[in-house]
Amino acid sequence: MKSLKILFLTSIIFPLLFSCNAQSADKNDNSETTVAKDIQVYYFHFTRRCPTCIAVEEKTLEFLKETYADQMENGTITFKSLNLDEDKAKEIAEKLGVSGQCLLFVKGDEKVDLTSEGFMNARSNPEKLQEKIKETIDGFIL
């Protein structure tokens, strides 16, 4: 029983340790990563990935394609999966203030980090993750 508690606590704390720190982006940055009218969804990960990491990406992209198909098609909402072990991803991560695995929603200067929700729910309760994604995007749109 004690080992189950340790395993449970580790599974909750581990993603939080590697979640992004999206607090320090340059407010005057006019790069392609911050277009005020569009919503960018970034999933930052490393080369070595666990099943939960893969599920966060898959469930997020699947939900976006199902729920926001028109916006995805016309580019109003974009999804980018970026490997932090690659230089291009490191540059974008630095601009956004990301330091590790992260599911980040960006519109202009506004950022919403759903990393914790993703890791807690992608495999066990994807509907809850979908609710948070919808709440975030609808908040940007309204």
Outline:
The chain has 6 helices and 4 strands. By secondary structure, the protein is of the alpha+beta class.
What are the low-pLDDT stretches, counting only 5+ consecutive residues below 50?
12-36
Query: What is the CATH C-level name?
Result: Alpha Beta
CATH fold group: Glutaredoxin
Estimate the mean pLDDT confidence: 82
End-to-end distance, in Å?
Answer: 47 Å
Query: Going by CATH, what is the homologous superfamily?
Result: Glutaredoxin
Number of helices: 6
Please report the total strand number as a whole number. 4
Shape: globular
Verbal overview:
The protein is of the alpha+beta class. It has a single domain, classed as Glutaredoxin (3-Layer(aba) Sandwich), CATH 3.40.30. It is 51% helix and 17% strand. It is built from six helices and four strands. It has a four-stranded mixed β-sheet with strand order 2-1-3-4, sandwiched between helices. The longest helix is centred in the middle third of the chain and has 17 residues. The N and C termini lie far apart (47 Å).
